Every structure is written in structure tokens, then in C-alpha cells.
Amino acid sequence: MTVSYAQTLDGRLATLDGSSQWISAPDSLCFSHELRASHDAVMVGVGTVIRDDPRLTVRLARGENPLRIVVDSSLRTPTSAAVLAGGAAKGTVLAVTGRAAVARCGEAESLGATVLRLPPGPGGGVDLGALLRRLDGLGVRSVMVEGGATLITALLREELVDRLAVCVAPKILGAGIEAVGDLGIRDLARSISLTDVTFTPRGGDLLLDGRVEYPADRDEVSRAG
After folding, report:
1. Are strands 2-8 and 92-96 parallel, antiparallel or unpaired?
2. What is the 3-state secondary structure (H, E, C) of the chain?
3. pTM
4. Which of 34, 95, 198, 203 is 20 to 30 Å from the Cα of 76, by its Cα?
5. Quick one: pLDDT at residue 222?
6. How far is CA 72 from the centre of its chain?
7. Is the pLDDT of residue 221 over 60?
8. Are the C-beta atoms of 217 and 51 separated by less than 8 Å?
9. Sign of CA dihedral 37, 39, 41, 47
10. Mean per-residue pLDDT over the chain, rounded
11. Does the pLDDT at position 94 exceed 70?
């Protein structure tokens, strides 16, 4: 599970009104497409679909288009969205809960989309652990997550992220949408860390890439030592 996003120096994914194009440089966008091509699936939350209407395809790198996954508990994804329209639905999975209307599910399935009905997790959204188990059953072995902040925060809170690839742009917004929300961490010693980190300049931006290490991982190493 790789989480990748672009942020400003002060940790913002977007302005207060949700505008995020273009925080990162064009070369960083190419890297994002390279990551897509190297994973079996690319995952976003429904908010990203509604706000940005991404295609989630590989256009700026060599490789096959990954499976598209939209985490959408009540199925708000419009049928006109790029991930469903023009035949794209056949490569799209919609992860929903019992809050999704049966008629809406049927409409998406009639377009060719796969609808996974999953139990609710904390807060009533999709149970992300259950989603990953279902995806594993479909043969998905690697997932790249591109946002938004709610999904990124939930995955980190549930310790489901293995790798972070963050593009830091030399810009400051002040107010804006945070890349990561409250994880319930109140002690610096319990923070999430990155190991095996690399720092690579990408067209004026700085790409930070590393393996995620959770407090429990550090505790286990400490006991073993």
C-alpha cells in the first residue's frame, strides 16, 4: 500500500476551496503516473472524484492502466465521472456500504463497474481492512492511494500504509486542506516515522519516498534488541 500526494511546504493538499491544480511541477506529475503503472490498482476517495474528476490512467509513463478503486460509502460517484463514462467503468471498482442505494449500485454495475458491498468502518465509512481483503481476493497485490485527505488519514490511522511518496512543492498557502488529519497521536514517541528514506529533486519539487514505520514496529525491534 503506497500513499502518494503532492503538498506545499506547509503541508497543504489544496486551497480552502479545494483547488489543487497545480501544486506540483509537471515532472512530479510524470512520477505519479510512473507509480500508477507500477501498481495493480490506484485508489481515491469519492471526494477526489467529485472535485477533480480524475481519469486515474497512465498517460505520462509506460505501462498498463491500473484498476481504479473509488472508496464511496454511499455511492455519490456520478455516472458522468471519468472513472465510469466512456467505457471506463469496466476497469473501476466502487467500494460501498449498506448506505448506497440499490438502484445506484445497479446503475453503476450496468455500466460495467464492479460494486463491492462492504461493512462500515469507524465513522460509518467503508471498512478499509475489509476492502483490502476483498481486493486481495481479486488478485490485487499492490495499491497506490492518491487521496484525498480523509482517505489518507484513515489509512494511516489504521496502520495500513506501507510506503509514502510525497512530493513537496516550494509553495506556502497558509490556510488550506491538510494532507493528513488528526491521527490521535499525543506523544511524539508514538509518531509514525519513515525509514529507508530517499530525497529526489523533481522539476523544482522535492520527492520524499520511504517505508512507513509505526510505533508498534519500533516497540517490536526494541524488544528483540
Report:
1. unpaired
2. CEEEEEEECCCEEECCCCCCCCCCCHHHHHHHHHHHHCCCEEEEEHHHHHHHCCCCCCCCCCCCCCEEEEECCCCCCCCCCCCCHHHHHHHEEEEECCCCCHHHHHHHHHCCCEEEECCECHHHCECHHHHHHHHHHCCCCCEEEEECHHHHHHHHHCCCCCEEEEEEECCCCCCCEECCCCCCCCCHHHCCEEEEEEEEEECCEEEEEEEEECHHHHHHHHHHC
3. 0.92
4. 34
5. 59
6. 13
7. no
8. no
9. negative
10. 92
11. yes
Bridge partners of 51? Answer: none
CA–CA gap between residue 74 and residue 83 (Å, rounded): 17
Answer yes or no: are the C-beta atoms of 71 and 47 closer than 8 Å.
no
With CA atoms as reference, report the closest residue to 160 among 137, 138, 182, 127.
Answer: 127
Instruction: State the burial class of residue 206 (Cβ atoms within 10 Å of its Cβ: 0-12, 13-18, 19+).
Output: middle
The x, y and z cell numbers of residue 160, run together, are 495500513
Which amino acid belongs to residue 50? I
Q: Which long-range contacts (CB under 8 A, 24 or more apart) does 216-224 make?
A: 216/159, 218/193
In angstroms, the CA 194 to CA 145 distance is 17
The cell for 8 is: 506545499
Contact 158, 150 (CB under 8 A): no
Would you say 67 and 140 are in contact if contact means Cβ atoms under 8 Å apart? yes
d(CA 45, CA 181) in angstroms, rounded, equals 15
Of residues 59, 60, 55, the one with CA closest to residue 86: 55
Instruction: Specify whether the CB–CB gap between 210 and 196 falls below 8 A.
Output: yes
